[in-house]
Amino acid sequence: MPRRPPSTLLALAAALFALIALRNGRVGAAPALQTPEQFIGFRVGADNRLVHWQKVVEYMRLAAAGSDRVRFRELGRTTRGNPLIVLEIASPDTLKSLERFKQLERRLYFQNGAPTSRERDEIFRQGKVVVLITCSVHATEVGATQMALELVHQLATDDSPAVKKVLDNVIVLLVPSLNPDGQVMVTDWFEKNLGTPYESSPMPYLYHPYAGHDNNRDMYALTQKESQYMAQLVWHDWFPTVWADEHQMGSNGARIFVMPATDPINPNVHPLIYRWNAILGQTQAAALEAAGKDGIIHSSTYTNYWQGAMAWSGWWHNQIGLLTEVASARIAAPIEQQRAVQRGSGPIVRARRDDSDPGPGSHLAAPTDTTPRTDYPRPWMGGRWTLRDIVDYELIATTALLDAAADRREAILRQIYEVNRQTIEDGRTGSVRAIVVPVDRQQDRREAAHLVDRLALAGVEVYRAESSFTLEGTSYDAGTFVMPMTQVFARYAKDILERQRYPEVRKAPGDAEEPPYDITAWSLGMLFGVNVDLVGTSLPSSLRLNRVQGLVRQPGRVSGSGPHFVFEYAGPDTAVAVNRLLKEGAHVSLETPSRFAVDAIGRDRLEPVAREFGLVALSAEPPPQGVAESRVPVKAPRIAVYAAWTGTNTDEGWTRWVLDQYEFGYTTIHNSDLREGALRRRFDAIILPDQSPREIIAGYNGGSIRPEYRGGIGEVGVQNLARFVAEGGTLITLGAASDLAVDRLPLPVRNLKRALRNEEHFAPGAILRIQVDTTHPLGYGMAADTYAFYNNGPFFSLLEGFGSFKAKVIARYPNQDVVASGWLRGEEAMAGRAAVVSVDLNPGRVVLFGLRPQHRAQTHATFPMLFNALYTSASPVSMPTTDQ
Fold first, then answer.
1. Are residues 671 and 536 in the same domain?
2. Which residues, 6 or more positions from 627, have their beta carbon under 8 angstroms from its beta carbon?
3. What is the DSSP secondary structure assignment for residue 231, as one 8-state letter?
4. Is this structure's pTM higher than 0.70?
5. Would residue 817 count as lying in a domain?
6. Residues 6+ apart with CB under 8 A from 3
7. 771 φ, ψ (degrees, to nearest 5)
8. What tens digit of pLDDT does each residue of 624-662 get?
9. Of 16, 244, 577, 805, whose CB count within 10 A is highest?
10. Distance in angstroms between the alpha carbons of the first and the last residue of the chain
């Protein structure tokens, strides 16, 4: 090999050091950072211009390379492989000692025990306020991601006293996009249609690969990769004191919502969190007013109660969680709105969220909420609204927040310390002093492990008891999961596991209750089908506990040499094992009661599956001839999941996620597939996710919709679904899609919900009790009495006079005490009614789910009913069809 000249070696060394510096997020000396406008070639927020996610990431890398105030870190890769990033921004001296300040923040949140008085005083004197800013979790809400470019440039280059104050007192954690996959999709879609007749054509698919708009509703189930990265950042790594999540809303009314939100409040949140929400939110409002901005509203629309939004999950973690919602443009295209004549003096019209898109060239109607008042002193009167306006509002609000955090540094640290101290003290003296999850008294032990794994990911300290113990007269075995309430995230553990009781909200005495903004129940133990005990007695001082680290696997084993094995069917994890065995070529069948039988596979191939999924597989004699004939053979079903081109059906995305996680193969089908027919040749089961029959049949139409995405399945698609069932297929309908089957096939079933007005029956999201027929194959693997999630779906009664059609109730609501957690108006209307119905049409079948069996991938307790409907669709054996 020839020797390289010294100049070449020096060049290589320089390049290597530069590469190392870039990988560490900075370099020692670099050219001055370009402005965003210089870098991208246009002003941020310019009409009809968007910065692609790859360019955003590139600019953030350059900022870290060119400034000693910025560090770049990749948290991980998203569902589609894009980088999810965070920037750590502070003064150079702070960044040089960043690990020290991180440890101070961890001590503020009582990690590894309470800080000593010396440590506490050091936190107050020298600690920083850690402020997390997260942007554009909903990908069509593009403004915050675009704004982040200018924010970073300002913090990285501005030498003004105001910026220096922020950098000296605050550590900024900036996540420019919580949904990079969606940013890529939305940007590409917008640019594809720009300058065509289809500029306002809605994107025909979800802007998160699975969750769509629900991606910020995933911060307690933590199913998605992006949610898990955030949980790791905020509850294991940095513990930010302030978390601001920046969104957009509809275009008709106010220009920006800032905190505080509206009633009711949640009793598990410390009052100081609500106070600081108001202080910091009103600081943002004041800065916007000072800048002459119109349309700033607070205490409207969004409630202080629910566990739904991204930053609001911080409330139960003693973090000040803020939300801003800025009025939307048409992605990057401007909107024109007719102007109101004058500010009103009549009755106050409360703002409601409106996400409608007026389309290019059209004018929105004039605003109707134009009455000045305390929460909306300078109403928006209409006019032109652009992406640049969104960027300006968000930049003002964000910099005002950072300025306030810097000014109130010590007060925030002292008071958050007090919130954390009181939380732990309440765990010693409060009504709930420990939460206990017994392993032995569960329908499925594995779900107990999944439950505490989700809690641990959310920062809750979960332990296992080394020995048996007794609390309040109940004995618990060794290995029981225990959460002492003397921990800083006790409020979260209590709120996420107890029954929710939504408070009454009335405008005046005698008025009807105000309906909630969003779901009202998230009792995760119920959703997972896990029994949880909240106890008012402190744990025995002698009880030794071991901290849980990672998912606790249940032991599995195989006894005997076969060739016939049996194992219990209890809970959804068994489905993964069954699907693996089917792929291995095993013969699998469902036996009564709730038991799988496996043949044609050796012990050596069964053992790895049993160990991984906690199965106890026993060798058994093959059943006698008569019993063998009653078994239901299980084959890998050929599944289709219908996806409309409406682009907003998150239920379809969650259905795909559940099928992927539990290793069911499936094909996504669209309108053309259903119109073409020949469905039975390809599929055993077709799933219609929760969607109105009108949207399924008609879809979206109009000249502004791209031609390839217009319309729905049409009448021919309905006929082909009927033919699919007539030829022996299984049609599975979720939620509102059940009405299509009930009306158009038709079926001997009536949807009782349709006859009721919202004033008579309404449930934006509650957990209900259900009773399951576990002797029916669709009820196998289920507990006889369990819980289900309900969200204004159908509930059914059975009809007579349909000849050979046989309907069977698989799950029903009890005759009383239907609501297990949350809020529901008109409970008596659904008492005793059917929640899940199977209709045998000979030879095909329709399974109607009025409840939400896979709601946001949280409802582990009801997954098996959906899985059973799929498994039995591929079975040549007729299902039991006893009338009920």
1. no
2. none
3. H
4. yes
5. no
6. none
7. -115, 125
8. 766 666 788 999 999 999 999 999 999 999 999 999 999
9. 244
10. 86
